[in-house]
Amino acid sequence: MQTRHITQINTKKKLSIGIVCYPSVGGSGIVATQLGSELARLGHKVHFISYGAPFKLDIEQANIFFHQVDVSGYELFKYPDYTLPLAVKMLDISRKYKLDILHVHYAVPHATAALLAKNIASKEGIPFPHVVTTLHGTDITLLGRDKSVMPVIKYSIESSCGVTAVSKSLKKDTQKVLKITHDIEVIHNFYTPKIPTKNPDAVRASLGIKNTDFLAIHLSNLRAVKRIPDLLEIVAKIKDKKHIKLLILAGGDFEQYRSHAKKLGIEKQLIVVENVQAIEDYINAADIGIYTSGEESFGMGILETMSYGKPVLASRAGGVPEVVKDNETGYLFPIGDTASFAQKLKELSSDMELVKTLGNAAQKRAIALFSAEKIVERYLAYYKKIIKEKK
Ligand code: GMT
């Protein structure tokens, strides 16, 4: 039996949208949360479905609803399963709130659970929303290459009504790795900067950093793809320049890298702050961003840094060149070329005028290409296109 979709074509109507994402600190969850919040601000009803409330979600915001998926601790299961209760919750919420769109962020297991829910609905003759899957990166570049899950990822993506990727580079990787034939729409990520509430001097003082120090900042979840040892080695290469400091806003446990930092003798130039919510205060107090990833479909930390008028030094990984314009909003280097990173950091630390010029260009680019205003409109237009085409 064919799936009956809920929506009638009426482009003016406010939509009822389900958003499924990982709630933990990580780019895909942050993008999904921001998108839901902006859609709710525009009057659409947004239902988040996940095993926990997303890290940055304001559940008090009007038009936002959160539905928790409870995972069974049934003793027969050595590994508790999330896909099945997620599919059931999707079915439940779709029916109860008459969702028009179910937008799943990250292919596994979200797109797979959506497919399962859609098939059940179809069998029972229950209307089901149009499923839009957004690919974020590691679901393709790492998991997509893993033969133990690859066919499921491919099938789930190809069974979605709509598929988007956060960069051209990720679209290309997806087509190459999974041989996907489904159309993939590139919709870049966006970021809405918050106004910093703390004085940059006060932030520096609280971290023991002088106003005359040159402060580089890095924000990430510290996973292996971020190549944190490279960051530490860059600092080690400019150990004689004591005024250059590195601040890491860690969305993961830094302890695993502590002994490496100690061995390199850079502890006095390194400051680590974990699980920061008010990133704006720290980025605003920094001079430059630094990102050494080996794989990066987009790089939310990079965009966040640029949004506060700071230039970025980054490795030329995946979609990063779509965000950072080499020589204009920062500099790009080959992955692992710590010597070039260190050299540029040293040069810029004594040319604040250039740092400011690059920073202003970075901010302008962030606003022009990656603002909520531009990107949310793209998603809405895409939802409407899917609703119209796939009725
Ligand atoms: O690597 C991370 O930071 C987490 C990961 C995720 O799935 O949450 O991030 C991916 O999605 C982000 C949002 O679209 C992108 O900005 C990141 O570049 C991407 N990470 C990788 O491709 C390694």
Brief overview:
With 391 residues, this protein is α/β, with parallel strands linked by helices. The chain is 42% helix and 16% strand.
What does this 3D model show about the protein?
This protein has a seven-stranded parallel sheet, sandwiched between helices. Strands 10-9-8-11-12-13 form a six-stranded parallel sheet, sandwiched between helices. It folds into two domains: 196 residues, 3-Layer(aba) Sandwich (Rossmann fold); 170 residues, 3-Layer(aba) Sandwich (Rossmann fold). The N terminus is likely disordered. Strand 9, helix 9 and strand 10 form a beta-alpha-beta unit. It is of the alpha/beta class. Helices cover 42% and strands 16% of the residues. The protein is elongated, with a radius of gyration of 22 Å. It starts with 15 loop residues before the first strand and ends with a helix. The structure holds ligand GMT. Ligand GMT binds next to helix 1 and helix 4.
Strand share of the residues? Answer: 15-25%
Query: Main sheet: which strands, in order across?
Result: 3-2-1-4-5-6-7
Topology as a string of helices (H) and strands (E): EHEEHEHEHHEHEHEHEHEHEHEHEHHH
Which homologous superfamily in CATH is the superfamily of the largest domain? Glycogen Phosphorylase B
CATH architecture of the largest domain: 3-Layer(aba) Sandwich
Q: Could you tell me the mean pLDDT?
A: 93
Q: Indicate the percent of residues in helices.
A: 40-55%
Number of domains: 2
CATH third-tier fold name of the largest domain = Rossmann fold
Based on CA atoms alone, the radius of gyration comes out at 22 Å
Q: What's the story with the biggest beta sheet?
A: 7 strands, parallel
Find the structural class using helix and strand composition. Answer: alpha/beta
Poorly predicted parts: 1-10
Shape: elongated
- How many helical elements? 15
